[in-house]
Design goal:
- By secondary structure, this protein is an alpha+beta fold.
- The chain is built from six helices and eight strands.
- The N terminus is likely disordered.
- Helix 3 packs across helix 4.
- A hairpin with a 5-residue loop joins strand 5 and strand 6.
Length: about 210
């Protein structure tokens, strides 16, 4: 029993000494500085982000304002948690598949399947992000390619698109491809023309009947 009492004494004595130490104003300030310093160090660690290889980084704040810098892959950048976000934008060409139905000249629907490879021009990444978002390829196809395809397809009947002469179909595909190239050039996105494929399908399968 006496040994337990002796063990308790140093413990209670130590607590009393810490309490007395904390009662001194200067010590309170030092303790607060230590806690604050640890908090700041922790925040600094959380703030450090590394740009993913094969990407460039841009930093956006809560108001949607981008920092006027583009960070290289592998670079360590500081983004304040909650207030700022690091977006990794893929630089290597990305293959995108786009499938959507469009109205034809004869009031039918044609399913257009587009496969292409897109790549952003580095110096224009912030502008591309503003227009089309992080998945710029998907955003571009939904906002821009849709308009171009619709403008071309509405001039032809479903039969011309799906089962017309090969030369006619090829010419229609080339017209859409040329429009996509122009849109990509305008928005500072590279498109690999030789890897762009477009197919027209009858979604209801009525032309085979």
């Amino acid at each position: 029993g006496s040994s337990l009492g002796k063990a308790r004494q140093p413990m209670s004595g130590r607590i009393a000494r810490i309490a007395a130490w904390l009662r001194q104003t200067e010590n309170q300030k030092n303790f607060a500085r230590m806690v604050g310093g640890l908090g700041f160090f922790g925040l600094a660690l959380l703030s450090m982000k590394r740009v993913i290889p094969g990407h460039v980084g841009i930093i956006e704040d809560m108001n949607g304002v981008l920092r006027p810098y583009i960070y290289d892959d592998g670079q360590l950048v500081i983004a304040i948690p909650i207030w700022q976000r690091l977006h990794n934008i893929r630089l290597i060409p990305v293959k995108k598949r786009f499938i959507k139905e469009f109205a034809t000249k004869d009031g039918r629907d044609v399913e257009v399947r587009l496969l292409c490879r897109l790549q952003p021009k580095v110096h224009w990444v912030p502008e591309i992000y503003y227009k089309f978002g992080k998945d710029y390829g998907r955003g571009f196809l939904e906002k821009e390619a849709s308009v171009d395809i619709s403008e071309v397809v509405k001039n032809y009947t479903l039969a011309e698109l799906v089962s017309g002469p090969e030369d006619t179909v090829e010419a229609i595909i080339q017209e859409i491809t040329d429009r996509l190239k122009d849109a990509c050039a305008f928005h500072k996105i590279k498109i690999a023309e030789e890897e762009t494929t477009i197919v027209f399908l009858d979604p209801e399968g009525t032309l085979e009947e």
